[in-house]
Amino acid sequence: MTPDIVSLEEAKLFVRVDHDHEDSLFEVIIQAATDAVLEYADDWKPRDDWLPGDEVPARIRLAILCQIATAYDERQDGADTPEAALRLIRPLRRLSV
């Protein structure tokens, strides 16, 4: 399981949700968004001794938040990773031949 780079409170603030009755949904979306972004940005990984609060590149955090917003807003449609998030993390993708 990947560490919490984005907290529940940050995600809800970004999506402009102020109620608690979808917190369990948000937890799933946060984890899935974090996994997807870190898998794509495979040239940046948290260290083994990474702790919540350690420095994470802003582009990683924002990409996760964008992915959360898209997944929450378009959850009926099976949302893809938004292009804005991909542009943020594309420089952190390891290219292989």
Describe this structure in words.
This protein has 97 residues and is mainly alpha-helical. The chain has a single domain (8-92), classed as Phage gp6-like head-tail connector protein (Hypothetical protein yqbg, Orthogonal Bundle). It is 51% helix and 0% strand. It contains 4 helices and no strands. Helix 1 (8-15) packs across helix 3. The model has no long low-confidence stretch (mean pLDDT 81).
The overall number of domains is: 1
**In sequence order, what are the helices and strands, one letter per element?**
HHHH
- Counted by DSSP, the helix tally is 4
Gross geometry:
globular
Low-confidence stretches: none
CATH class: Mainly Alpha
Task: Write the CATH architecture name.
Answer: Orthogonal Bundle
Mean pLDDT across the residues is 81
CA-based gyration radius: 13 Å
Structural class: mainly alpha
Helix content: 40-55%
Q: Which fold name is given in CATH as the topology?
A: Hypothetical protein yqbg
- Strand residue content: under 5%
Number of strand elements: 0
Separation, N- and C-terminal Cα atoms:
29 Å
CATH fourth-tier homologous superfamily: Phage gp6-like head-tail connector protein
Q: What kind of assembly state do the chains in view correspond to?
A: single chain
The main sheet comes to: none
